[in-house]
Structure formats: C-alpha cells, structure tokens
Amino acid sequence: MPALVIMESPAKANTVQHYLGSGYKVMASVGHVRDLPKSTLGVDIDDGFAAKYINIRGKGDLIKALKKEAKAATKVYLATDPDREGEAISWHLAAVLGIPVEQTRRITFNEVTKTAVKAAIKNPRNIDMDMVNSQQARRILDRIVGYKLSPFLWKTVRSGLSAGRVQSVATRIIVERENEIRAFTPEEYWTVDADLETAKKKKLTVHFFGTADGKRVELKNEADAKKVTDAADAGTFTVSSVRRSSRLRNPAPPFTTSTMLQEASRRLGFQSARIMKVAQELYEGINLGTQNGGVHGLITYMRTDSLRISDEAQKAAEGYIRSAYGDEYYPSSPRVYRADKNAQDAHEAIRPSDLTRDPDSIKKHLTPDQYKLYRLIWSRFVASQMASAELDTVTADFVSGGYLFRASGTTVRFPGFIAVYDFSEEDENAPAGKARQLPELNEKDELKKNAVTPRQHFTEPPARFNEASLIEFLKDKGIGRPSTYTPIITTILARGYVEREGKSLRPTPLGEVTTKLMVERFPDIVDYAFTARMEDDLDSIEEKKNSMEGVLGEFYQGFDKALTAAFDSVGGDKVEVPVEETDIICEKCGSRMVIKSGRFGKFAACPNYPTCKNTKPLTKDGTPAENTETAEPIGVNCEKCGAPMVRRKGRFGEFIACSNYPKCKNTRQISKSVGVKCPLCGSDIVSRHGKNRSFFYSCESYPTCKFVSWDLPVPGVCPDCGKPLYLKKGKDQLICKEKACGYKKDLTAEEAAEFRKAAGLA
After folding, report:
1. What is the per-residue pLDDT for 299?
2. Terminus-to-terminus CA distance in the chain, angstroms?
3. Catalytic residue status for 301
4. What sign has the CA pseudo-torsion 180, 480, 284, 97?
5. Are 713 and 685 in contact (CB under 8 A)?
6. Between these two residues, 283 and 662, which has the higher pLDDT value?
7. Among 405-414, 516-525, 672-681, which stretch is predicted with the lowest mean pLDDT?
8. How far apart are CA 451 and CA 113, in angstroms?
9. pLDDT at res. 380
10. Which listed residue (301, 403, 556, 697) is catalytic?
11. Is the CB of residue 110 less than 8 Å from the CB of residue 84?
C-alpha cells in the first residue's frame, strides 16, 4: 500500500501528489479536524486549563476516510503548514488517527517544489509540542476572553455582541485615531512660490525657505506671506549657491507578511483578505501547463516575519542578476537583512520559489490578481539582492528682496535596483528614474521672474487608518503575528465595530461605545503594551522559556478579578449606542430617519419604530437607493392574484415581482440564456441564482425538463466522445461529464474569460 500524506489544502495536496507519484496518496484535512465546542467554554480552568476538543461538525466523513487510509498505509506523514497553526492541526490529526506523538512523522517545507517536498519526506520528525502548546495557549486565551467578556457586553450594551482579545485592541486603535481627528484644530500657514526662467528659456519653480542668511522662517498668516511676496516681487532672483552631491539609495528587503500586505494594499489596491487568498494560491501551486511541468508552487510560505533567505536562493539571485542585468548590478557582497527582535525566524522571507519563472513568462497561466501579486513579490525579491542606486542631487538657493528661495532636483546616475523595483519617495506612483531635474545653474546667475504666488494652507488632521497603515501600526507595536493580521481586520469589520469608508477604516458608534466600556472596565485587555507582552509570552512557550499553564495562569489571575469587579458594577440600564441621523425625512410620519444595520448592510429606518415601520434601502454612499415603487410594468399579470407584474431592482440585480407586494409575494428571477441548447430537450440553457446567490444553469423549461448543472455549459462537444463540454465551476478547465470519458483540458485565464463573456457572465 502507498504511504499516506495529509495536508491542509486540497489544492496543495494536488500539487504534492503530482510531485510524489503513485507511491504516495496525498489527502487534505481542509483545515482543522478538531476544535473547542461552540456551545460551551470547553476549557477546564481548574484543571490546568485543560482543553476539551471535539471533532468539528461536518468533518465526520472526512475523518472516517482519513482513518481508513491511515490504517491501510505503510507510513503516515503529517504535512500541514509549517507554522504553529499547522503544527496544531497535525497534532489534532494524530489524535483522531490514534497515532502517538512520539511515533508521528511530521514534515514541513517552506516552498511547494519537487525538491523541497522530496527532501522533507526524507527527513521526518516528531510533532513539536512546544509549537502546539503555543498555539493552544493562544486559542484558549482567546476563548476565555471571548466567552467570559461577551456576557458582560450583553448586559451592558446589546445582546449578541462578542469580544475578542486582539480585536478589541485593534478597535481601540481606530477609535483613538477618530478621536484625534475630532479634536484636531487646523492651523493656518502660507507658502510662497516663484516661477522663474533661465536665460536659455528653461523654467523652474522655487519655494520660499527663509531669510537670506539661511534661517528658516514659517509664514503663519497672510500678512507674513504678503511681506515676503512684495519684497521678492520687487527684487531680482539671483543664484546664491549651487550644491551638488551624490548619495546611494539601498533596496528594501524582501517581503514579510506585514510588508507584503502593506505594499499590495498601497500599490494594487487589494484588501488584506484578498492579498492573503491570492498568496495562498501562489504558494499551494499553479498549473503552468504541460510544457512547463504542470503544477508548481510559485512562492515560499506567505506567513512569516523573517527576512532570512536560503543560501540557494541567494546564489540563484546572484546568477539571475548578473545574467539579466550585468555584473555591475550585483553588489560587492551578498545582501543580508536582519529582522526586528520580535521576529520568528522559522521561515524564510516571502520570495519566488524559482526566479527563472519571471512574471511575464507565465502570465497566461495566472489570473489577473495572481499575476499582479506574483510580479510584486518577484520584483521585490530580485531588487532586494541588487546593487544600490546612485543618485546625483542638486540644491540651488536663490535670493530676492532679502529672502531665500530654494529648489532641489535629483537625477539617477546608476539605476541599480531601481531597474527592477522602486517608486520615488516624492510620489509613490511615479518611477524613481523620472525624478525632477533642474536646468543648468551657476552662482550669480540672474533669472527672469514670471510670477511670485502666495498660497494659504491649513494643517491636516491625522489620516484615518486603512488596512495597510493599521497593519503597520500593529507590527510596530508588537500586536498580532503574521497569521493574525488579516483575521483581526476581518473580525472587527464583521462584528460591526469598524466600517469601511472608501479605503479608510472608521469606528461605528457601537465600536466607540464598546471601546469606552472596555477601557474603563478591562484596561489590560485593550492596552497596547499588555497585548504585545502577551504575544511575547506566547512566543516564549514555543521557545521553551515558559509553559502553557504558566502563561494562562498568570493572565487569568488578573483577568478574573477585573471580570468580577465589572459584573458587580453592572446596573439596570444598558449603555445607549448613539444613532446616526440622515437627511432623509420619513414620508409617513415626518421624522428624520436614522441609519441601521441589517443582514445585508445599512438601511434607513424611522426612529419611531415600532409605531412607524418605514425603511429605505441605501446605496454605498449613504443616499437612498432607487425607489422601487416606480418599477416598470412588463405587460404580464400575476398568476396568483391577477395584479400587474413589474420589473424591480434588488440587492442582487433585477427580478420580476407582483405589484401587489407585500400582500402577494410572487417573484421570479430574470433568467438569461448562456447561448447553448439543452442536451435533453433542445431548449435554451439559462443562468439562475442558487443558494448564496451563486450561479447554476438549467433548461429554461425547468422543472418540466430536469437538466441542471453547476458547471457552465459551453459551445462545442468533447473531442473524445462527442458529448457536451462544460467550464468547471471556479476553475479554468474544460471537462466532459461522461464517466467513461473523463476528458479535461486546462485553459488560460484569458481563454476561460472568453467562455464566460460569451455566456454573458463577464
């Protein structure tokens, strides 16, 4: 019998099966197989914080299949992800399979390549219980905080609320920034710019700096600016000095999780969950076609805060840079980057697994998101190993009317790493190679003055956090770890404590009220330093410097006292959550409507509910959605009550409904032909909405004709058996559904998009 290899992800399992061949069977656990129960705390605090794990509901058949295969296999390898979470999943798998920890074969690899996978198989180890206990401690800690604190919020704020350890701190960060913005008082200041022209008709703009002797002066009001403007306007602009210098600009290090999230957010506009999803796909494996050897993992493990790279990767980078750019583009000695003191060095930095697979050469095999993120990771890594850029800078001072004006310019003497990856410091959207260049200037040159312009400005409040800046703040404060940044943001948004406003994150009234309560009653839980120290304590378990019971016991001693005091102080009245008023007037009772949140987002509601139950849907910008009362009749009467049927717009697009709603709730979807005939009866196949609004396809005469498919029927027939072909749901792959045939063909993203476009789904 073949050996069994168990991984977390089905996609990764398929990649590894491709590498190992028929001597191994690779299966996926699809994440955790055991967890704490949802209905109870699941932690015996009095028995050393013993956790009571149960099999996750819905995983019964999978566990049964894994047990069957494990029993028949010659060896069982546990190959879950190479971090604490992955180590814990392997431990849970060993428990359900009945394998003692000392007999486990645990394997890990930082990149999903054939070489790395086969090397791991040759060097198995036992499960690392220190890593497992570190993960257990985090899980138990978060469970205690969530299950013990949530009832307090139910009593004091609103039923159904939940509290989280790190999520509460993240919410506080956003609330405090909002308070800073509200408390900010703008201050006036002025600038004065002069538009000049050289004798050779070259134009430039110079900026007021200060007095002629070089002392900096701030212009705080219009009178100050007018004094400078009048004096400069009456004088002659003369070059007082020209200073030329050179400087080196070093490349940034390769990506860690936090820097990848920040950079992809800034440059690509992706949200953190989207970034991590795409990075997971690149890590687990992409089918690059038979000519390129099939499925390959394109990047190393994407949850890391290490800046270390392997010797092999460093040598590969040197060879690639010297070959592609020239010897002068490689530094005199290899670059080594050092991470901060809190970094865990278990994994390498995020880098491409094979530099020869440059982004453009495999673009046709990647989705647009995969290509953009892979190009960012690939370019950042190559640049991190290259020579510094050499920049020439020029600073020219000009004197007029007793005042000093200044202009600076930079040119690139040698691009170095900029040839691959860099944006200028002044404008993150402009390549550094296009830096500003001053015209030729010499001391005592007199320039023609075209205009001297004063401008009023006001200081700006601090910007709201976006996902990138919040992750940067969390990293700087030591709050969270690479695997938790995205879940933190996802959780506070899902719980309604924070909302998006464009790309910014702003607290909701609920978030502000809850944060105020937490700061008053549980200051340690929402304290930055305390939370960072807890992260260090969790790390210390893995490093064998502390025990799980010791860390949990020390935390719970103070937490339990604070919890008891908080419950003792609870009064009869709940904290009022402020409502957000709108400019919409309720046409039924004349009140100003307020914003409420429901299952499908925000809506406007009358504040006199339940006396007045009037509500209105809102668009994303907070304005009333299109009035559906003016829905368009379609010339057909309702078969249930005889009233005219009308075309309406809902959250998921247009649909047909009875005009007598809500007395008659007859509705129909607007189905759309996909351009293919039904194989059973010859009628058109149409797209329809299924559960969770996902598409499925059926004959237009359904249910009279029973043809239904989740995969998209496409024009043409199978070249092997002549039966219909389908585009597999969620994949870029043509398939034949005849069991005796099994025809499959991988498509490029562009080819698959053409099929979807032809079906009207693009």
Report:
1. 96
2. 46
3. yes
4. negative
5. yes
6. 283
7. 672-681
8. 63
9. 96
10. 301
11. no
